[in-house]
Design a protein that fits this description.
The structure holds two protein chains of two kinds. By secondary structure, chain A is mainly alpha-helical. Chain A has one domain: Methane Monooxygenase Hydroxylase, Chain G, domain 1, CATH 1.20.58.220. Chain A has six helices and no strands. In chain A, α2 runs antiparallel to α3, α3 packs antiparallel against α6 and α4 packs antiparallel against α5. By secondary structure, chain B is of the alpha/beta class. Helices cover about 35% and strands about 25% of the residues of chain B. Chain B has a six-stranded mixed beta sheet, with helices on both faces. Chain B has a four-stranded antiparallel beta sheet with strand order 2-1-4-5, with helices on one face. Classes of the chains: A mainly alpha, B alpha/beta. At the A-B interface, α3 of A face α8 and α10 of B.
Chain lengths: ~230, ~260
């Protein structure tokens, strides 16, 4: 069957490019925030704030592009799902940016005092969350439903790490009330990283919707789950 | 093509059609459900109008046409022995792309079918106007023309606007009490507002009649139909709920067509 490239395809490619820029910015923000935590070097705070502004600008731009495309192109099928996925994904990425800012605020609190303990689990969480963001966007670019599915499964790892961090810091706080401020800051950082992983999971679910036309958010019981369409 | 929960009004089973040596329909299996609107879409020359015309044997009028397979109306083969073609075409009416009112008055257009079908012998051809009047009124009411035309029934139908002419053609079909309306691009000659009015009329009529519409306007198919079939080069490539065809079609050819990548 003969197909041809439409002007619309160029507009869709442009949209994809902007989403990938947003993802790259979000990933590097996560990296910088955790590096700031570990090295206690607050000079990265300003670049992170500027990156967050870039994310916000891109989100608005993408949403404007989407409205225009919906009005002028009346997209259907895969194009429609792509455009809907784009609005959802850009919203998740913008939230990730907000969460990184929240992390830097807690890093600032921690930088005022001596380190409470060596940081092991939190950097692990950050690395996993960052990888989830990267892989969910890879799945998006390459229409890779299997990769998207594996991102969704990885969320459990991050949740488990967060619980571990919480339990460990609770014992610190119970042993010595003077650690509470720093322990709370660390718990909040862990919480923000867990939320970042949740947003990456949401992106992966949006990617599955785009590829397969299946809405996999909020799965019902196995009995009610709709059958997967043939590949 | 099996509809699990509803007995189809019309069915094509293993339908093949040749115009001379050219095969216009290839093993088409389709089921049109009752009291719903089914749309058939596809690029020019795909066979959609040919398929539509199979449902009331209009293709019989074309020399050199050869059909194999079966077409069923309420489960009965319309090519079977004992099928009266005029009766078939009364039950399965057709509306065309260009409104084609007869060069008669509004009244005589709508009454024409009843005058022809209602009569049993030539002696009864002169059916009293009063008897026909209520049929004409009901048919014009059904297409929402009555209020505009009730005082203009003797005016020439060709003086009406294109939209009114198309409604009149629909009234003409309804006057002989069909089961099915076959509509071949019924809005192509109409402007967007008139199109919207006719689509609204179709939705209303679908509560009572079975409607099959051929259209090259995909947005129209998406708007009005409950089920849509996509045809390509004589083949019925995909058939299913309209919402599925336009959000996640199963066949990549369907997707290429509805997204405008085909061609």
């Amino acid at each position: 069957m003969d197909t041809h490239e439409r002007h619309f395809d160029r507009e869709l490619a442009n949209l994809k490019k902007k989403l990938l820029s947003m993802a790259a910015i979000a990933e590097s923000m996560i990296d910088q925030a955790i590096s700031e935590l570990v090295t206690r070097d607050e000079s990265v705070a300003e670049p992170i704030a500027q990156s967050e502004q870039q994310l916000n600008r891109l989100q608005v731009e993408i949403d404007e592009d989407v409205v225009k495309l919906l009005a002028t192109r009346q997209p259907v099928a895969v194009d429609l799902r792509f455009i809907l996925a784009a609005t959802r994904i850009n919203s998740e990425l913008e939230r990730i940016g907000d969460l990184v800012i929240n992390i830097t605020e807690n890093v600032h609190i921690l930088a005022q005092d001596a380190p409470l303990k060596p940081l092991i689990d939190i950097p692990r969480m950050a690395e996993t969350a960052r990888k989830m963001v990267r892989e969910s966007l890879d799945a998006f670019v390459n229409s890779d439903a299997a990769l998207a599915q594996s991102v969704i499964m990885t969320d459990d790892e991050v949740d488990a790490l967060k619980d571990q961090v919480l339990r460990e810091l609770l014992t610190y706080m119970m042993a010595d009330p003077r650690t509470i401020e720093r322990a709370l800051a660390l718990i909040l950082i862990a919480r923000h990283l867990e939320r970042i992983a949740d947003h990456a999971t949401n992106i992966a679910q949006d990617v599955i919707y785009l590829i397969q036309g299946r809405d996999v958010r909020h799965p019902r019981t196995p009995k009610e789950r709709p059958p997967e369409p043939p590949a | 093509m099996i509809i699990k929960d509803v007995t189809p009004k019309l069915e094509a089973i293993g339908l093949n059609l040749h115009y001379g040596r050219f095969q216009a329909l290839k093993e088409v299996n389709a089921a049109i459900r009752p009291r719903a609107i089914t749309a058939i879409i596809g690029p020019s020359g795909c066979g959609k109008s040919t398929l539509l015309r199979c449902f009331n044997r209009m293709n019989d009028l074309i020399p050199g046409v050869r059909t194999t397979g079966r077409v069923l109306l309420d489960g009965h083969d319309i090519h079977g022995p004992g099928i009266a073609l005029t009766q078939l075409r009364k039950r399965v009416g057709m509306v065309f792309q260009r409104p084609n009112p007869f060069p008669l008055s509004v009244f005589d257009n709508v009454a024409y079918g009843q005058r022809v079908h209602g009569s049993r012998t030539p002696r009864q051809l002169a059916v009293p106007r009063s008897h026909l009047y209520s049929i004409v009124e009901d048919s014009l009411r059904a297409t929402m023309l009555w209020d505009a035309l009730k005082d203009r029934l003797d005016e020439p139908a060709l003086d009406l606007s294109p939209e009114q002419q198309q409604r009149l053609c629909i009234s003409r079909v309804l006057a002989v009490e069909p089961d099915v309306l076959l509509m071949d691009e019924p809005c192509s000659a109409l402007d967007p507002i008139a199109t919207e009015h006719i689509e609204e009329l179709m939705r209303k009529l679908a509560k009572t009649y079975t409607i099959a519409i051929v259209t090259h306007n995909m947005q129209q198919a998406a708007r009005v139909s409950q089920e849509t079939g996509f045809m390509l080069l004589g083949e019925l490539v995909e058939f299913g709920p309209t919402e599925a065809i336009f959000t996640r079609p199963s066949d990549e050819r369907t997707e290429a067509y509805v997204t405008g990548r085909y061609g």
